[in-house]
Design goal:
GO terms for molecular function: peptidoglycan lytic transglycosylase activity. About 35% of the residues lie in helices and about 15% in strands. The chain is of the alpha+beta class and about 350 residues long.
Length: about 350
């Protein structure tokens, strides 16, 4: 387990109620054309285009507020949002409404390398999905794809601006209300999407309602500012909150709040996945040697991935259970990290989570 201490604050309990509207096996990908083999290229023929490069996922950012500004947010407004106390991350993207298969859909034009961090963990982790987007295809929210009857790999006309025809590269839960389709920036420009029409804000430790009020004051009455922690959205499958709750059920008597507290201390719920100075990795900061014994395939994809919250969180529950959490919680947490200060901090945070979500 992780040996170096992360400075934590009880106020950051709000980071758990994330907005991911995901299911366990929700990503579908269209067929991707393979580049021609060297033997198939004639002498002097141009080489196949290089595959698009998408930066590897380094962290997952929990969006707390989504603001939609019809005319686009100005640079000064975005700068003021960034200066709100405890705001950690802000991203702006172009967007607009277009027609797809005869129905209105809301589209965002995003940089795959940058935007993937703001999506639910199961979506953010899919390198193939974001590579398809970077390659000029579009990605549809799982629900939108089902509602519209879209077929993977098929080409569709996105009626807006130059109305380009674009192939569907994949579907996945996007975790944002009203967002149906993602396109790469170049396609968004052709479609005439409005720059900075959507603003996503991450502010751990700030009450979402307070954050909404401050952002609305900056953006004005025409902006629609949404709290992404409303009761009907928080804790759905794919969120860190739900992952902690699901994992705890495998160890009767172990509260999900203990897993949440460990997740906060170890990586701030996936924000800092290491490696630590001791070599620990992933959202629950397992040492690779420990992972060999306790690694779990939590999402049923056939592998136990130390970097995946879908695997690491159930593995942490299994470790604590094996360490006797049902009989002596203090001893089990001490086994996770051999330090009394660590146990005391985890238990204090667990109590804070219990009170926050009572």
């Amino acid at each position: 387990m992780r040996k170096d201490r992360l400075v934590t604050a009880v106020a950051s309990v709000a980071v758990l109620a994330v907005t991911a509207v995901a299911v366990w096996a929700a990503i579908r990908l269209g067929a991707v054309e393979e580049p021609s083999s060297p033997a198939a290229l004639s002498a002097g023929a141009p080489s196949a285009p290089a595959a698009p490069v998408v930066a590897a996922l380094e962290r997952v950012v929990v969006p707390d507020v989504l603001a939609v500004v019809p005319a686009g947010a100005g640079a000064a407004q975005v700068d003021r949002i960034r200066k709100i106390a405890k705001v950690a991350d802000v991203i702006t993207v172009a967007g607009g409404a277009v027609t797809l298969e005869g129905k209105r859909v809301d589209v965002l034009a995003v940089d795959p390398s940058e935007f993937r961090s703001w999506t639910p963990p199961v979506t953010a982790e899919s390198q193939a999905l974001w590579t398809a987007l970077a390659g000029g295809r579009f990605v549809a929210a799982s629900t939108a794809a089902d509602d519209l009857g879209l077929s993977l790999g098929a080409t569709y006309r996105l009626a807006g601006g130059e109305a380009p025809s674009v192939a569907l590269g994949g579907t996945a839960p996007l975790g944002l209300p009203g967002v149906d389709v993602l396109v790469p920036p170049e396609t968004g420009t052709r479609m005439g999407l409005v720059p900075s029409v959507a603003v996503l804000v991450n502010a751990p430790g700030v009450k979402p309602a307070t954050l909404v009020k401050k952002i609305r004051a900056i953006l004005g009455k025409k902006a629609e500012v949404m709290n992404l922690h409303t009761a009907d959205r928080a804790g759905t499958a794919g969120s860190y909150l739900d992952l902690y709750k699901r994992a705890a059920t495998a160890c009767p008597g172990l509260s999900w709040t203990v897993l949440a507290a460990i997740g906060q201390v170890e990586s701030d719920h996936g924000t800092n996945v290491g490696p630590s100075s001791a070599g620990a990795l992933g959202p629950m900061q397992f040492m690779p040697a420990t992972w060999q014994s306790y690694g779990t395939d939590g999402d049923g994809d056939g592998k136990a991935d130390i970097m995946s919250p879908f695997d690491a969180i159930p593995a942490a529950a299994g470790y604590l259970c094996a360490a006797g959490a049902q009989k002596d919680l203090y001893k089990a947490v001490f086994a996770y990290n051999h330090a009394d200060w660590y146990v005391q901090e985890v238990l204090a945070l667990a109590d804070a989570y219990a009170r926050k979500f009572a």
